[in-house]
């Protein structure tokens, strides 16, 4: 698909073949597509199941508009020999292939790394799976929530010990999948850089061409000092609810209108500012709160005092007062606050995208922001197979008659 305005994305000229479904691999390729890569998304004739996740309009979720954006959507029946042949031909003309089947499934389809690298020695193949391509658990079933639980996140997002007997709280999005996709995108770009550097330098040995990302490991990688603290101190980090275990005051506090405001005033100067703002300058000299150590030890009393003030305030008024005092603070945003936030709007992080299926749709913007080559939303998520004929013609040179034959055979 040609971008009539030109494609300023920094990855323009890179071709990625996505054989992915649900969240992890498609999230990875969306990041690359946002920065200008040409992403060819291969779906079965019925389409990616995520198209129908959540509230739907005529069978399509609004999330698909963003999740599938900037991709060229084609259908291939990978259980059909001619469908596999087309996948091979596209892989031969791509820079990377990204997939999230169970380990070994791609090889069972006839698209193992040995086959793919024989066709295209420079192809980077990125595998995203629950537990990785090796190890005793490689064949276990997994989704993002499993990775979040095993990687330690579900434990730390729980209520503080002794405050609730409800199940451990889930992050409200598929964060395990998205983290794995993010690591895969990083790995793909690292492998491509290495490939191209070796080519420039005339290296004779083959460059790294395989990326292995596990959902469990992507989550664990984000767990800061959880593992070192246990290894050195035997310490098991516990969930702290809204607080930070090592600094105070930092928490979410209730307001008069039923909202929550996060206040992070855990340095000495910030605490003094906060104490003055809430009309309690005496707190600075209170032996219970003299330093951060004392404030953490007496956090219940401190947070109760701060909450007495926030409960007397409307949320917006409290946020404005805290901002004037230069204290880090914010309302806890819902989608409504996100959509109206002037900072997000000014940087294009919330933007309106015209979608033929939905009309105007709000999309999250592109991260990272690269001013000299910012990338853009070139088009929203497309209908199933909308680019099949065009892609097969442009990249593989197949004519309309051949595409019709492939459709009739069940390959597309």
UniProtKB/TrEMBL annotation:
InterPro entries per UniProt: CoA-transferase_III_domain, CoA-Trfase_fam_III, CoA-Trfase_III_dom3_sf, CoA-Trfase_III_dom_1_sf
Keywords for this protein: Transferase
Signal peptide interval: none
A GO MF label: CoA-transferase activity
Transferase in keyword set: yes
Keyword Transferase: yes
Matching Gene3D superfamilies: Crotonobetainyl-coa:carnitine coa-transferase, domain 1, formyl-coa transferase, domain 3
Protein name: Crotonobetainyl-CoA:carnitine CoA-transferase CaiB
Species annotation: Methylobacterium pseudosasicola
Source organism phylogeny: Bacteria, Pseudomonadati, Pseudomonadota, Alphaproteobacteria, Hyphomicrobiales
